[in-house]
Amino acid sequence: MEQISIIDAKDYVGQTVKIGAWVANKRSSGKISFLQLRDGTAYFQAVVVKSEVPEEVFQLAKELTQETSIWVVGEIREDTRSKFGYELGVKEIEVVGESHDYPITPKEHGVDFLMDHRHLWLRSSQQHALMLIRNEVIRATYEFLNAQGFVKMDPPILTGSAPEGTTDLFETNYFDQTAYLSQSGQLYLEAAAMAFSKVFSFGPTFRAEKSKTRRHLIEFWMIELEMAFMHQEDSLEIQEQYVAYLVQSVLDNCDYALDVLGRDKEILKKYTKLPYPRISYDDAVELLIKNGFDDITWGDDFGSPHETFIANSYDQPVFILNYPKAIKPFYMKPHPTRDDVVICADLIAPEGYGEIIGGSERATDYDYLVEQIRAAGQDEKDYEWYLDLSRYGAVPHAGFGLGLERTITFIAGIDHVREAIPFPRLLNRIYP
User: Which part of the chain is the Aminoacyl-transfer RNA synthetases class-II family profile domain (predicted)?
Assistant: First the structure.
């Protein structure tokens, strides 16, 4: 008898197998007990028929409690009534670990209760599906970037300076000096790109931003890319190819998870069509004003309602190009014909999911960078190593960062970014 995982049931139809699983739910109908089982790979139904098993097995099945772990032996059968397509005809059951008074029952629970029990909530079918999609996005990221010739680099998490200012950074003591938890590995990746041409990083970033919106986390994961000898247009093409690749990979490999979440796959297929539309910041402001947004003027950053309207005007992810210099970080390359904007772009997801990528062409002129660092209120001495990049063989280069959790939220079609990470850190939450 072979021990298998539920997800592989399709390969064992008609065979007797052994599975280690947890009882997610159960119901009885007279002489039949139905067990909803999960084993970390998928969920399916096990059927215990009183006339087909010893009395003690049927009685045990009736007494099983939610989240009790078991070994179960039975025959894999096709089940055309379920989305999964297969079930188990039970022959034997052995209890491994009992579970009593499991706190998350099939009834409705409040968000705070579920977040307090996040370590258990991860076992539920929707949370399980989300983590499978998260895993696929990460897997597909490595696949895409490796195929494109990118080299992975690991920038430090503890830094002595802040590329986008220190107002929303976590400060810590680093022996006899001040350090910050990283908000971005970008500057370090720029240095690495001068050595390896095309590089990327994947790791946690931290923002001490006192925001409670459905798009914000205090700790989140970023995929950041830097590319030497590339201009912004080259970068935009990589960005849209990357996002389309992630969406297609989830469609190809997470069919079961998307079904669990009820995500409309036809909508997702639209997001694989390239190129994505582009609109300038100037035109975006004009579009908003024409459509009754009287709370926006040129020079303002866009809020959630603004981004949602712009993206939904195109029904696809859309690039907003060339924001005002005053609202962007010092390292972005100035526009060649305008002093008031920089060469940058945000990729805005449709359906109200907002910005999932921010990127730009990077400034390379030494004097300009020093001027911008000073204008940002930073000490240029903290950036001497970064300024070396403009002293020694500077080349055109561009890069961007993709927020993993926002991208998962967008692809999965869920309401809040907190469900796209195993253990979210929010403004008022650091437990569990």
Answer: 133-432
